[in-house]
Amino acid sequence: MAYTTINKSTDYFNTKLYTGNGSASDRTITGVGFQPDFLWNKSRSNAYNHYIFDVLRGTNMISSNTTQEQEDKSPQFSALTSDGFTIRNDAGSLAINTSGVTFANWCWKANGTGSANTDGTASNVTVSANQTSGFSIVQFDATQSRVSVGHGLGSTPDAIIMKETEGSGGWVVGGFGLDWSGYLSLQSTNAFNNDSNDSSGTGRMFTPDGYAPTSSVWSTNGSAFLSGGTKTCIAYCFKSIKGYSKFGSYVGNGNADGTFVYTGFKPAFVMIKDSTSAGLMWNIRDNKRDTFNPNDTVLYPNSSEVENAHGDNDVDWLSNGFKMRSTNGHTNASGDTYIFMAFAEAPLVGSNNVPCTAR
Fold it and tell me: What's the sign of the alpha-carbon dihedral 335, 341, 344, 349?
C-alpha cells in the first residue's frame, strides 16, 4: 500500500474553475490554496489557446498548442497571488476574463521566485524547486551544443517538459519511462521521435549517452530544438512522489475492459498521450470538471478546441489508479504505448493510515 508524506495533495496541486465576468477592473481568482507558481489556463467553452504562466517568467505567456515565443500579457494577467491570480478583461489578445466563458486552471506549487543554480554548464540558470512535491521550474540559456542544466529536485527527474521562450522552437517532452534519446512534442500529435541512432548527439533534444539525467542535472542539445543561436528556455521538471504523483507509461489492450494503471492514489489530474501512433491527441482530465465515473470530459494540450465529453473515450478513476473503459485510440489502442502524468486527489493510504475510497 502507498504511504506518503503528502496527505493533502491540494497543498501542491489543485484545479481551479471560474467563469469570466467581463470586468475591465482587476479581478482576483482565489481558492487555489497556494500561490500557483505554475499556472496552466484553458477555456472550456471557447476555442482559445492554452495560456501558461509561471513565477519565473511573470506576466509572460506561452501556449502548449503553439510554438510561438512568449508574449507579455500584463494588461490582462497582472499577478500571481498567495491564493490564486489576478486578471481582467482587456482589448488585448489574451481572453482570460471574457464574460460567460468558462475556464479550467491547473495549478502547481514550486518554491516562489527561485534562486541561481550552478550545478550544470548552462548559463543564467534560475530554479524554483519544491523537493517535497517533486516539481521544479527552471529557466536557462540553451546554446547550439550540449549543455547540462541543474533542476534542483535532489533526485533524478522522471519527466521534463521544456520550450524556448525567445523564439518559435517547439515544445519538448522527455522521460516518462521512455528512452531519453527521444522526445514527444506537446504542440503536436506526432508519435515519439526516437533519435538514439544519432551517435553524435547533435540531433537530439536530450543527450542520454553518458549524459542521462542525474539527481542534479539533465542535458540537452539546443541545436535540435532552438530556432537559432542562444535562447532562453523554460523547463518544468517532475519526480514521482509516492502517493502524490506518478509519471510513466502503459500499453493499451484495445478492449473495453481496458488496461489498469496503478498510481497508488485516487487521481485529481491525468494527462495521456499515445507515443506509438501519430495523429492522436494529448488529453487532460481532472476531478473538478468530471466528478463521477466514467471520466470522459477532455481538454487537449495540443489544440485550442473546446472541452469535449466523449462517451467512446471513457476512463474510470479508482482509489489506486485509473482504468481504460473503451477501445479509443487516444487512450487504449491495442499494443500502443502511452505516457501519462498523474497527480493525486488523495493517497491510497496516507501516513495517518487512513485509506481513501474510489468514486
Answer: positive
